[in-house]
Amino acid sequence: MALIVAKFGGTSVASPERIQNVAKRLIAMKNEGNDVVAVVSAMGKTTDELVGLANALNEHPSPREMDMLLSTGEQVSMSLLAMAINARGYRAASFTGWQAGIVTDSTFSSAKIQEVTAERIKAKLADGAIVVVAGFQGLTEDGEITTLGRGGSDTTAVALAWGIDADVCEIYSDVDGVYTADPRVVPRARKLDVISYDDMLELSSAGSGVLQSRAVELARKFGVVIHSRSAFSDAPGTLVKEIDMFMEQAVVTGVAHDTSEIKFTIRDADDVPGVAAQVFSALASGSVNVDMIIQNVGENSHTDISFTCPKGSKEEAEAIVKRIMPRIGGRDYVIDENIAKVSLVGTGMKSSPGIAAKAFSVLAENKVNILMISTSPIRLSIVVEGSQCQVAARCLHEAFGLDSESVFEETALSPEEIAAKMQKGR
Amino acid sequence: MALIVAKFGGTSVASPERIQNVAKRLIAMKNEGNDVVAVVSAMGKTTDELVGLANALNEHPSPREMDMLLSTGEQVSMSLLAMAINARGYRAASFTGWQAGIVTDSTFSSAKIQEVTAERIKAKLADGAIVVVAGFQGLTEDGEITTLGRGGSDTTAVALAWGIDADVCEIYSDVDGVYTADPRVVPRARKLDVISYDDMLELSSAGSGVLQSRAVELARKFGVVIHSRSAFSDAPGTLVKEIDMFMEQAVVTGVAHDTSEIKFTIRDADDVPGVAAQVFSALASGSVNVDMIIQNVGENSHTDISFTCPKGSKEEAEAIVKRIMPRIGGRDYVIDENIAKVSLVGTGMKSSPGIAAKAFSVLAENKVNILMISTSPIRLSIVVEGSQCQVAARCLHEAFGLDSESVFEETALSPEEIAAKMQKGR
């Protein structure tokens, strides 16, 4: 007897057979007496195919037209899902983002939701229908179609859950919840029954691909409870919600890893004020998303500056670094593409001193060489060589008491394979 | 220095290369100082593919969801065309049917346009952009996406031309205009420079596939001048417009043929009042589009009833005939799938007696056996055996003075091949 928003990603609706499975699942929820709103992404590779068509015509298509084009992907999957539900004798109605009342700003390709006016959805629910909504898209006040960018469908689901005051926002994917670490890397990882918004956010931004940090942020803002669970089983997953501050918590909630970044080092730059500012404002205006920054203590009025950024930004970043080198007197630069970031996350870290010291000793005992360090009150991130990603994640996971009794089947993925698997669509 | 609406069908935008050609064409118009609004159909086989997906999930998908699904096809081609125009350095903006202000009734899958509020188009034209609009679709006042059904994109183009008070509505296709007959069947067919709405309507409904009769009807109603021309050449095509009544006109404007119908004959039905009513109201409520009807004079209180309907309706029609047989006392029924309808069309026929008699003698001289006859004030249609379609069309074309000096390359298409070629998408 609940009002449920259930989001299914692109792989869950990649074929007519899979759409049938989603339909069955939604009907089961409905038969249990719930009101159900589904949010869907585009089918499988649809988005890539549309991007391919666009690029055949224009190397730099206008974001407005790109949003027009890409928003058709979800419109296809939502109508097909509604038809599949109908075929089983249940009422269903699909709605595009604009029909569902998702109002956004006008930043094409990465629009932000400003308002949700879900009157049409509420009316159809009152009629007894299962409502299907296109994720990833909205409409500006001027009537322009927008898309929400990366993580958009999760964000649509959370925003709708808030807009219709749903009891829970279920996000279905190919993993059955949030783990203390990626089981493919740390076989003794445990599934968490519940995790706080803050810990989930740090895990997401540290590389855990289960939930999009943007959606988690929105959920925290509006107090929407997220249930991350498997599209292929009925087992309960992980609840993401506000956790009572006075509850006893583990110091460390999980270990995340991220192999999607590369490291630039500019050597022997002038050690004078303003050099770092020049480098990083140039990178920012070139839309390079810099993650970690280290500037070593200088010698002989020179210093080394290192930073990490996504692999996908390599070309832009390199062009900017080349351009800026003469101005900052740098000798040369090095790009290290084989790195991994391993992070310890836990709200309990705030009140537990000595976490960093313990982590460093554990890594030293395991002969893991630390390349960079960055911290927040509830996160400690360490960059290591790509080949040491697994051993670093495993030894930290064990040292902070996260290991479970059972062991996941050992996997032998390379950091690149892991990175590829962690890439999420919408 | 004109305001032009230019419609391109599915084959004209079937690939990125063809979309480039359309973009070039629109830019050429723009460079000549015109304001340009393009209307596009879905790319090539897109609609068929979407229908295939739908049928994999639901044998009888709801028309509302079907319209949601199919309307994505034009949204893809319109945004790609806008990108292609942008890539050549010109401004462009694409609009879905609802964004373009196409308001329809709520008859999903065959909605009728009720209003056109083209403010957004006018604003973009004033900005100097080439506007691209998705054909075939609209929005109800309740915010539901609809499609216009067969011939929908032509209809969108004519409605928009009226809505923005365009000088001409150019409809591009793979033929270069309206001919006195299909040149593939009648090699001496001539291209017409101009044709009246009435003649064009009769030709369209008699099987000439160049323009959709629905669009011609709308054009006549609002006085929109249509220019039917080739997507592959710059040569002028045929203007469809009001023709001065006092202008001297040819008695017969053209010869159309149609091999898309089949003929049912119910034999020895009771010859009492109400039998025909029972048959044809049953067919009508089964959505079978009956074209010609013949009831022979009865003998021994029994009569034969024949009618023609589209090949695609064979199953429904047969089921209905079977069901109704016992009630009308029919002995049995015969289906003739190998027929062709050949029609003479011309506004001048109204004031020229003896056309029918001349046509019948010409056919007799050429040993063409007449199976059925139907007439309107400006049309004479004759059903013949499929194998006699070509000879009937050619001898009538010659007899009524339509033959040109030049001869089209002879084709040897079977009536089936011709029928397949005449099938038009949206």
Percentage of residues assigned to helices of chain A: 25-40%
* Biggest interface pair, counts: A-B, 37 and 37 residues
Beta-strand share of residues of chain A:
15-25%
- The neighbouring-strand order within the major sheet of chain A is 3-6-2-1-9-11-12-10
Shape of chain A: globular
> Major sheet of chain A: size, sense and barrel closure?
8 strands, mixed
Mean pLDDT of chain A: 90
Question: What kind of oligomer do you see?
Answer: homodimer
What are the segments of chain A in which pLDDT stays under 50 over at least 5 consecutive residues? 421-426
DSSP helical segment count of chain A:
12
**End-to-end Cα distance of chain A:** 30 Å
Number of strands of chain A: 20
Radius of gyration of chain A: 23 Å
Write a compact overview of the structure shown:
Chain A has 426 residues and is an alpha/beta fold. The first copy, chain A, is 35% helix and 25% strand. The first copy, chain A, has helices at residues 16-31, 46-57, 63-87, 119-126, 152-163, 197-205, 213-222, 275-285, 314-328, 355-365, 389-399, 415-422, and strands spanning 3-8, 35-40, 92-95, 102-104, 113-116, 130-134, 137-139, 145-147, 168-173, 194-196, 226-230, 238-241, 254-258, 261-270, 293-295, 302-310, 332-336, 339-345, 370-376, 379-385.
